[in-house]
Amino acid sequence: MLTACANDEEGCLDANATNFDISADTACGNCCTFPNLSFSINHRVVLADTTKNMQLDSFYVNNIGQSFAIDDMKFFISNIALLKTDGAIVNIKDTIQLNTCTAGTASLAILTDDIAIIKRTAFNYTLGSINASGDFSGFQFDVGLSPNANAVVAAEAPSTHPLGLNTDSLYIDKENGYHFQKIRLATNEATPDVLTDYSIAGNDNRITLSYTVPFTLIKGFNTSISLDIDYLSVFKDIDFSSDSKPTIQQKIIQNTPSAIQLSN
After folding, report:
1. What CA–CA distance (Å, rounded) separates 63 from 245?
2. pLDDT (tens digit, 9 = 90+) per residue, 218-261?
3. Is the pLDDT assigned to residue 77 strictly greater than 70?
4. For residues 161 and 75, what is the distance between their CA atoms, to the nearest angstrom?
5. 25 or 61: which carries more pLDDT confidence?
6. Could you tell me which of 241, 209, 51, 193 has the C-alpha nearest to residue 118?
7. What is the C-alpha separation between 14 and 249, in angstroms, rounded?
8. Given a cut of 90, is residue 264 above it in pLDDT?
9. pLDDT given at position 260
10. Relative to the CA of 10, which of 122, 182, 195, 221 has its CA 20 to 30 Å away?
């Protein structure tokens, strides 16, 4: 009697993967690829009767009549977590190994690679891949960096990475880590070239933003979350003529949660 002889077909057997192969007989070693999570950012100025796209170097007036124009503004987002209805937490699955320095002690840290620098000139940010599906009740992320990420030695990180040294770098130095938010403003329309820098830095100034919104992740499909930044809200109640720089920076921290909202 002759019997048929066939090799087992190897492939991805994870149903959440983009290359899930239902016909495979055995699981591949590391061939599965997973969907990406991305943020889409709308840069807005919300006025009493209309909403406009925020323009760099254009003057706006906040709620107490103070004028300002944004020459540049960047901030980190990181530590993205999707919250399942059953209480489970799903994080970005990608990691990166980077050298850190804390109190003069060097070490190698494995970080979740979900870090991005948000800036006015960019709108879409791919944050990494996720191995999950099903029903979720919300999500959260940080404006800023974890203590480990804030201790990365920027000169030893890839220049293409948000923590590396590049034209968008927010690195300060080994002692102070990174600017979590860095803002350059003009506050006098008569002298628009006179600019002042404001910095939010330090591990105590990391801000966690949480959003309760039901959504469903479909197996094998990319997911995009759309957020609006209202730049008038960032500078709410700030008196540029009399508030000190530390006071202004503290008000920016307080205003950040209400300034970043889910898009309608």
Report:
1. 19
2. 999 999 999 999 999 999 999 999 999 999 999 999 999 999 99
3. yes
4. 14
5. 61
6. 209
7. 46
8. no
9. 97
10. 221
φ, ψ of residue 245 in degrees (nearest 5) = -60, -45
Task: Describe the chain by its helix, strand, coil percentages, rounded to 5.
Answer: 10, 45, 45
Q: Residue 64 burial by CB count (10 A; 0-12/13-18/19+): exposed, middle or buried? A: exposed
Average pLDDT rounded to a whole number, residues 4-11 = 72
Q: Is the sign of the CA dihedral 23, 29, 33, 39 positive or negative?
A: positive
How many whole angstroms separate alpha carbon 230 and alpha carbon 258?
Answer: 9
Using the CB atoms, write b or e for 93-128: b if 16+ within 10 Å.
eeebebebeeeeeeeebebbbbbbbbbbeeeebebb
Counted residue by residue, the chain has a size of 264
* Beta carbons of 92 and 128 less than 8 angstroms apart: yes
Give yes or no for a contact between 206 and 91, defined as CB atoms under 8 angstroms apart: no
Residue type, 238: I
Q: What is the mean pLDDT of the chain?
A: 94
pTM for the complete prediction?
0.92
For 94, the 3-state DSSP assignment is coil
Closest of 132, 136, 135, 134 to residue 14, by C-alpha: 132
Q: CB neighbours of 78 closer than 8 A, spacing ≥ 6?
A: 112, 114, 115, 116, 141, 142, 144, 145, 146, 149
Beta-carbon contacts of 29 under 8 Å, excluding residues fewer than 6 positions away, are none
> Can you tell me the distance from the alpha carbon of 236 to that of 222, in angstroms, rounded to the nearest whole number?
35
pLDDT tens digits, one per residue of 106-133:
999 999 999 999 999 989 999 999 999 9
Cα–Cα dist 113/125, whole Å = 13
At 100, give phi and psi (nearest 5°): -125, 160
